[in-house]
Amino acid sequence: MDVTQAGFSPVDGNTLAPSYYKLSVDAVADNSRSKIGIGATVRNFSGEAVVALSSPLNGNLSPLLAEAKALVSTLNWCTAVKFPLSVVESDYKVLIGKVKHKWKDKSALSDLVSQIVSILSNFPTIIVHHVSR
What we know:
By secondary structure, the chain is an alpha/beta fold. Helix content is 29%, strand content 31%. One of its GO terms (molecular function) is RNA-DNA hybrid ribonuclease activity.
């Protein structure tokens, strides 16, 4: 797994082989209403959206935990439907750094990071990028 913190431009023919896909993930937390929203888009080699999904969740999470939860959920979904992912991108730089270093402690975030790393092992050539908003 190649994990970088470099920016990632839109998918083009030089980035993805025609049979591979890019997953873009984002999350938002509205703790005043105890709501979390997760979303993802899967794009093909020419940058066209193949599928997009969103899901509301109930609860209060920090933005970092919400993004990690979104990544776990959407990676599990891509694994279940057998999307051959080549690239994953998130705008949460801290999360990408923790995934890159396989960070561990005794926190809920550490558990989510471990799940992300484990799921990413299903895609041995995957590249994980941080993208700026």
